[in-house]
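Weekly modeling sync, notes
Attendees: S.R. (lead), two postdocs, one rotation student

Agenda item 3: backlog of single-chain predictions. S.R. asked that every request posted to the team notebook include the full sequence so nobody has to chase files. The rotation student volunteered to paste the first one in as an example of the format we agreed on. Action items at the bottom.

Example entry:
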Amino acid sequence: MYAVLEAIQSSPLSQLLTSQRWAATANSKQILETLHFIAFALQIGAVMVISLRLLGVGQRVPIAALRRPVFWTAWSGFAAVFLTGALQFIPIATEVFYRPSFRAKVAVLGLALVALLWLNAHVRRSAVVALLRRKAAPRTAGHAYCSYEPTRSCANIFGTSIANSCGGAYWHA
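Predicted structure, as returned to the notebook:
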C-alpha cells in the first residue's frame, strides 16, 4: 500500500499542486482548503434545510418544492468536498494515510454519503406520497392550483396573489 501512496504523491498532478511556478499553484493548499470549507458548508446547509423541513419547520413549503434545489446543492457540495479533499490528499498521501484522524475523516465522509443517500430516498418517498394525496383529494370550488409545480408551491407559500405568474393559461380554479 505504501508503494501506491508514494506513486500518488510523486504523480505529475502532485508535482503541479506543489509547484511554485504560478500564483494559483503556489497557493494551491490555501485555495483548496478554502474551497473545501465552502463546499462543506454548502453541503451541511442544504442537508439542514431539508432536515428542518422534515422535522416540521416551514410546513407551508412542500417537500417536493425543496427536493430538487436542495439535493442538487447537497450533491454538488459533496462532490466538491470529495474533489478538493482528494486534491489536498495527493501531495501528502504518505504522510496522512495512516493517521487515525484521516481515517476518521474518511469514515465520516462515508457516513455523510450514506446519510445523504438515505435522506434523498426519504424525501423522494415523501414527495411521491404528498403528490398522490394531492391527486386523490377532491377539489373544492374555492381551491386554486397551478399545473406548474414551482409556481404552485409558491402559491401555497404566499397565497394566491401570484396567480398571474403562472401565465394565466395554466391557472385553474
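Discussion: group reviewed the output briefly. The two ends are 67 Å apart (CA to CA).
Action items: rotation student to repeat for the remaining queue; S.R. to check formatting next week.
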